[in-house]
Amino acid sequence: MRTSPILLAALACLPALLRAEGEESPAGGGPAIADSADIQRIEVYSTRTRVHRNILPITLSVVTRSQIENSSESSLLPVLSQHVPGLFVTQKGITGFGVSSGAAGAVNVRGVGGGNQVLMLLDGQPQWAGIFGHALPDMYVASDAERVEVIRGPGSLIYGSNAMGGVVNVITRKPDADGTQTRARMLFGSYNTQKYLLNNGYRKGRFSSFVSVNHDRTDGHRPDSRFRITNGYANLGYELSDHYRLTGNLTLAGIHSQNPGEEDDPLLDNIMDILRGSAAVALENTHARRDGAVRLFYNWGHHKIDDGYSPGSQPRNDLFRSDDHHFGAMAYQTFRPVRGNRLTAGLDYKNWGGHAWYIYRDGSPRSDLVHRTINETAAYLSVQQEFARMLTLSAGVRYEYNSRFGGVWVPQAGFSFRPAENTTLRGSFSKGFRSPNIREMYMFPPQNPDLQPENMLNYDLTLAQSFLEGRLSAELTAFFIDGRNLIETVRENGRPANRNTGRFINKGIEFDLHYRALRDLSVDANYSYLATSRPLLAAPRHKAFAGATYTPGRFSLNVSLQVVSRLYTRLPSAGQSAALQNNYTLLGARAAYRFGPADRGINLFVKGENLTADRYTINYGFPMPRALVFGGLDFTF
User: Fold this and answer.
1) What is the DSSP letter of 105?
2) Which residues contact 87 (CB under 8 A, 6 or more apart)?
3) For 41, how many CA atoms within 13 A lie in the half-sphere containing its CB?
4) How far is residue 615's CA from residue 103's CA, in Å, rounded to a whole number?
5) Model pLDDT for residues 487-538, shown as the tens digit of each residue
6) Is the predicted pLDDT of residue 28 greater than 50, yes or no?
């Protein structure tokens, strides 16, 4: 197996790294690297309100701001694909994911993902398109994220539908000290790729703001694969008192992309122009024995798509158009009536849907495809009790009512056992589900309005251990998933139809390690193994990552290696003789030099991706670029 030499090399290097713990930092070294190592003790928000990670029964990964910064990525999802075991993101080019046919950016957790089985959140606000139900991968900008919390496994108790396989919660940046800081970045690289960033954080007294603008563009590594996006984000906050805070955020993105088609079946003029936005407002409260919030959110999108045509044929007469929306309200409160007890109650309301139609070049009257809206209402309750500071038991239940198919009960239970200060054993049982989206029920020939929700049962057990006063942290997780009622397209009487026919069993292990070997040297590594009862797209059998960051003084160096093995890029079907699998190894590096102090200065950097020029494919028919080189400047003032 291709992963074996790399894993053995990593294990061989580990003793040397452990011995290095006692060495002093080089003279003149810069500030200590932000510490993903002691990750058990941090507080997280993915259960709605703030709680220490080590008492949670669920399996949760945290990607820190320093890990995001060291990537120099403008998009957040590729960073998650490296640093979160069991999580995989599809890609098709240098930058940008696109929508419609040929799109990438599908997030898969433990083999469960596809269009909308993993829920994306922005500060707890759901992010997905109202008609097609899929996430919006080009909307998640690395520069706006303070950190990312990933629930590896169902999050449907708290978040309902679409959190069947997992939850990705992007926690946005908010200034925590009075003053102002502005940052600008320019990056240039292979295939006329250009990336520009400008953001500003400001805080004075009770008011704070964070505003950013990003623009990415590339000619692409294949003909007719241009992509560009301009994304704006604003987050405002005001502390009404010591206990109440009012916040609001707004995101707008204009996306233009071109799909070149599969390599052996190219397309011309498959062009997409997308305008998307989201807004939210929240009133948060924090008291000694209770905290919570009321949140209102609204997402919308307008899509203009030309499906293109094959070389030698005529341009299509029909052009796709759609408007979609997704809005809702969330109210939740956590109470701590007695020592060691937490009780969380919440209410959710969501309304999602939209209108899709065709217009015609020849002036024919437009043709409506769908004009539908669906409502969901839910209530949930979870209880957590700590015993003797060693054992925490958790249980909860959610009831969600969908206006199309009725009600769903969602149970969850788990424990966290801490026999020693640096040791945690946790386990959980949870149910996840996904409501069928409007496309599956009402659009195009496979449509079936009688579809029922998909669901799965997840069992996992994690052993977490930290060493060397928290400088070394490791986790080992085993999981078992039983999925039922999967929506699949089958052929009946020679015609395609969507049916609840699928079942799958996924099981595997995940390993995660963080080590701060020296004041200026940190190492991150993870590995995941996934065994599935049936072939699944975008679900590699083996995925491994190792990265090291060294920051002596003004210089910084980051080196990373990712190995993916037995990745299905095409499944077997009647028209194809066999499935296709891919294996690849990616080497990346980034070097930077800082002029001036850390919080006010210029950073000059250069980075390379796929430096060994490996040939590989993630989305079938879309070969990924070989070696890529970028360089740029970061200004902070």
Assistant:
1) -
2) 61, 80, 81, 107, 108, 109, 150, 152, 166
3) 11
4) 20
5) 988 888 888 899 998 889 999 999 999 999 999 999 999 999 999 999 898 9
6) no
- For the chain, which residues make up each domain, given as ranges? 36-487+496-536+547-636
Tell the burial category of 220 from Cβ atoms under 10 Å away from its Cβ (0-12, 13-18, 19+).
Answer: buried
Tell me the one-letter amino acid at 97: F
Q: Using CB atoms within 10 A of its CB, is residue 225 exposed (0-12), middle (13-18) or buried (19+)? A: buried
CA 360/CA 78 separation, integer angstroms: 38
Cα dihedral 155, 160, 162, 163, rounded to 10, equals 0
Is the pLDDT at 16 greater than 50, yes or no?
no
| Per-residue model confidence (pLDDT) at position 490 | 86
Quote the Cα angle for 486-83-469, to 5°: 125
Phi, psi of 593 (to 5 degrees): -135, 130
Which amino acid does the sequence have at 515? Y
Res. 6: pLDDT tops 90: no
3-state helix, strand, coil in the chain (%, to 5): 10, 60, 30
**Residue 458: phi, psi to the nearest 5?**
-120, 135
**Top-confidence residue, 20 or 367:** 367
Angstrom CA distances, 449 to 235, 437, 438, 446, 522, stand at 39, 10, 9, 10, 52
**Cα–Cα distance for residue pair 335/339, rounded to 1 Å:** 11
Query: What's the average model confidence in pLDDT over 619-630?
Result: 94
Number of helices and strands (H, E) in the chain?
A: 5, 33
Give the residue-averaged pLDDT of 284-289: 93
Closest CA to 180 of 200, 207, 205, 206: 200
The pLDDT of 20-40, averaged and rounded, is: 39
With a CB cutoff of 8 Å and minimum separation 6, the contacts of 52 are: 41, 42, 43, 44
3-state secondary structure of 9: helix
Considering the domain delimited by 36-487+496-536+547-636, tell me its CATH architecture: Beta Barrel (2.40)
Band of residue 11 on the pLDDT scale cut at 50, 70, 90: very low
